Amino acid sequence: MATRTIWISACAVLLLCGAAHSHRQQRCSSGWRFFNNRCFKIIPTPTAFYKAEEACQRENAHLASLHTVAENAIMRSLVQGARLDTSGAWIGGADDVSEGHWYWLDGSPFNYIDWAKGQPDNYGNEDCLMLTPYDHLRWNDLRCDNLRPYICAKKSGRGSDGGSDDTELKMTDVSCAPSQPCSYTTGVCG
Ligand SMILES: [Ca+2]
Ligand SMILES: [Ca+2]
């Protein structure tokens, strides 16, 4: 287990190197990280779900929707890199309109899921979506008034000198030892 933890950390360090590249490009403003035509930002301040969404909207973003294995894995690695893997983080899904009918706050199709074991369980009326520390940052429904860090996302913009040589975060940024390959389903090494 100690070995696994070490390689998760190594994974995060290399991922942050990839993020540093993204700061030199113009597709995302400072503090945001570019991946798959969107810009993502992790805000570590523990915040209730809809307060977090309001904060994202003030930056023309929403709580992040996730649509692919790669996006999901990259977000997990970013959360780990920010050392928030013990608190988890809100992402932008909810089933508060109709129980069991999940939607993304940004209006995109809810076409991918990665529920943690036994989730969603709506325990005590849980209607908001988070990456849970209890199962490798897979998904859990949680009561919306809980305070958690959160991930905002928005479409990438084209800066005045946005170039074609932008560096994008990619799965190869999640690098691990050959004996502990990075899992494309969990986004962690081993
Ligand atoms: Ca629910
Ligand atoms: Ca739950």
The chain-level mean pLDDT equals 81
| Unique ligands | calcium ion
Shape: globular
Care to count the β-strands?
8
| Approximate helicity band | 10-25%
- The strand line-up of the biggest sheet is 1-2-8-3
Would you tell me the structural class of the helices and strands? alpha+beta
Q: Helix segment count?
A: 3
**Major sheet:** 4 strands, antiparallel
Q: Mind telling me the C-alpha Rg?
A: 16 Å
Beta-strand residue fraction: 15-25%
What would you call the quaternary organization? Answer: single chain
Low-confidence stretches: 1-25, 159-165
Order of helices and strands: HEEHEHEEEEE
For the terminal residues, how far apart are their CA atoms?
10 Å
Question: Topology, pairings included?
Answer:
Elements (H helix, E strand, L loop, with lengths): L1 H22 L9 E3 L2 E10 L1 H9 L4 E2 L5 H13 L7 E6 L8 E2 L23 E5 L5 E5 L5 E8 L35
Antiparallel strand pairs: 1-2, 2-8, 3-8, 4-5, 4-6, 6-7
Helix pairs in contact: 1-3
This protein binds calcium ion (CA) (2 copies).
The site of one calcium ion (CA) has 6 residues, from loops.
Summarize, please:
With 190 residues, the protein is α+β, with helices and mostly antiparallel strands.
Describe it.
This protein is α+β, with helices and mostly antiparallel strands and 190 residues long. 23% of the residues lie in helices and 22% in strands. It contains 3 helices and 8 strands, in the order αββαβαβββββ. The strands form 2 sheets. A 4-stranded antiparallel sheet has the order 1-2-8-3, with helices on both faces. The chain has a 4-stranded antiparallel sheet with strand order 5-4-6-7, covered by helices on one side. A hairpin with a 5-residue loop joins β6 and β7. α1 (2-23) crosses α3 (69-81). It binds calcium ion (CA) (2 copies). Residues 119-121, 123, 126, 140-142 line the site of one calcium ion.
